Amino acid sequence: MIKKLFVGITALILAVNLSAQNVCSCDDFTRELKGAYDQAFRSANYPEATKITKQLASSTDKCCKAKAQIMFANIHFNEDKFDSVRYRVVMSEKILGDTYDSLVTPEQFRLRGQVCAAQEKPDSTIYYYLEGLKNSEQHNNIGYVVKFCNDISYTFAGINQADRGLPYMKLAVEKALEIKDNALCAMAYSNLATTYGMMAETTGNSKYIDSLSVFAPLSLKYAKLANDRMYMIKSYNILGGLAVTNYEFDKAIAYCDTVISQLPPKGMEQLMVSALYRKGQSQYALGYMETSLQTLHQGLTIAKTLNISAIVQLFYQQLYYTYKDNRDPDNALLYLEKYKSLNDSLMNIEKSTIINSLEQQYNKEKNEQTIKELSQEKQISALRIRFLIAGVAVALFLALSILLIYRQKLLKQQQTILETEQRLNRARMNPHFFFNALTALQSFALRENDGKQLANNLSKFSHIMRETLESSYKDYVTIEQEVDFLREYLELQKIRFPNKFTYHLDLVKDIETESLMIPSMIIQPFVENSIEHGFSGITYHGELKVLFDEEQENVVIIIIDNGKGLISGTKENNEHISRASQIIKDRIYLLNIKLKTKASFTIDNNNNEPGVIVKIYLPKINKDESTAN
Q1: Phi, psi of 45 (to 5 degrees)
Q2: How many CA atoms lie within 13 A of 181 on its CB side?
Q3: DSSP-derived 3-state class of residue 517
Q4: What angle do CA 169, 170, 176 make, to 5 degrees?
């Protein structure tokens, strides 16, 4: 299903260009009348705009009468009276006959295309826009060449094919610069930057972000030169999107607030929706969950009234993430289901095939304009060849579609992996441990006054800190390195909790501790839970055991404590154990994807004895193998 993109914006551009594109020679339609019409139209005062247009319709000049019909159509379009739009376009065609008017004729194609876009008919939309582009090129009407290129690009973006609109946007910039029209340059650069932004979001390719960084400031530059308030606002909106892409969320919120505060109450709802979406995204990224939810729901309400499926889908997706991180599983599931349902209905191969054929037809006609006369036999032969080429093109397109779908699945999987890795880097070790350990060292220094032992403990602490930081860059460590790390970590914990617990690190005799590798920091979350929460509040001496063993092709790690356990423990204790379980679950998920293994773990109460027992099953990874991976 094609999305109805930027319909209100393009209609507003039409109102401006009725006075800017041509200077009408009608005595009945003075410059003052044009200004009054523009002001009424921009403020959505359609009765007043209609009254002014009727004065132009009373002219005896057929070009002015045809212009009036286009102005009527423009008003009807913004009132969603699409049958009336078609009627006015037909009337303008009858009035002009075979006469070409540099404003009216292109608008006939454009309005037909806009109606099809509003009714979500991408094949018909592309047809009228390509016909309008071809007609404008034939009459060297550069202004409308730029506009039709923009419209074609929007349509491709609406069916998630922004890359196919890119050549048209580049042509629009080239033509706008050619005639040195600042307003057209602002339009072209703004839409080119928008296209690169869509491609960056779709593919994640940094080269598109680089292009966006170049063209977004140019859009604002030419908008200011043209004193075009609408495109200045749109440029700020694009810069807000760029700030989000660069993780500059405070800057993004500032740009979005500028857009929201400067937008008129009606006529530019699409920019309002876009600004609210970016602002909600940024608030979410900064951790302002409740504020983000308010902003996103405000934007979703407007997007639904505009019936822009692509934007509604984005809001559903972001609301899912926000509710999920805000620990509201019911609403998170609700918006995930809405997102998936809408995503399944957006696009089908049949419509894409039709659009592809129409674009091929346009390019073919453009390249063959010099061929005027062919014999009947040659025409039949050329027709057969065209059918053959079209068949091959359709077959290639279907094959390409299958490859793109497969590639999209791979990209989603890679995205999941990257998101999980980011969560893991933030959850490597509880940062409160560093503060508590330093406090314990300070107390030890004041209590024991043993400089040598203090230096030894500081050495352990620095080694643990270094290992923790380096673990963000190392996927695997040897069992020997992990044992050394755990021993130093536990010794520091004993300083914090003197006489609270003892520990044992046991290895089976034949295990190759120097060559076998395990994922770094995979044991520490459970050890931390045993000490911080399992032994918290107990009246007896705590014991902690960590055993490294082998079982067929696996390395088995067993962690046993005699703490409070899962059932008798407090809710806080169980929540911390659940967090540790989720960290390990994410680590093992990544390990299984990267190495195609079946690693796993279990956690349970220790039979009839107090405490918890954790078993982690990892594949045997030799030192050389881990380096290769």
Answers
A1: -90, 75
A2: 20
A3: strand
A4: 90
The answer to whether residue 381 sits within a structural domain is no
Q: What is the largest CA-CA distance in the chain?
A: 108
- Among candidate residues 177, 211, 237, the one where a domain is terminated: 177
Task: Identify the bridge partners of residue 559 per DSSP, sorted by sequence position.
Answer: 546, 614
Handedness of CA 144, 150, 153, 159 (dihedral sign): negative
Top pLDDT among 458 and 86 is at 86
Spell out the long-range contacts of 398-401 with Cβ–Cβ below 8 A and sequence spacing 24 or more: 398/349, 398/353, 401/349, 401/352
Regarding whether 188 and 76 lie in a shared domain, the answer is: no
Report the DSSP beta bridge partners of residue 622. Answer: 516
**Type of residue numbered 366:** K
497 and 441 together in one domain: yes
Do 81 and 225 have their domain in common? no
What is the identity of the amino acid at 328? D
CA–CA gap between residue 312 and residue 435 (Å, rounded)? 45
Contact 312, 300 (CB under 8 A): yes
The pTM of the whole model exceeds 0.70 = no
pLDDT in tens, 373-385: 444 555 656 666 7
Which range marks the domain in which residue 93 is found?
A: 1-177
Same domain, yes or no: 146 and 50? yes
Determine phi and psi for 503, rounding to 5 degrees: -140, 160
Token code pair at residue 331: 């609403």
pLDDT, residue 295, reads: 92
What is the SS3 assignment for 288?
coil
User: CB–CB of 18/26 below 8 Å?
Assistant: no
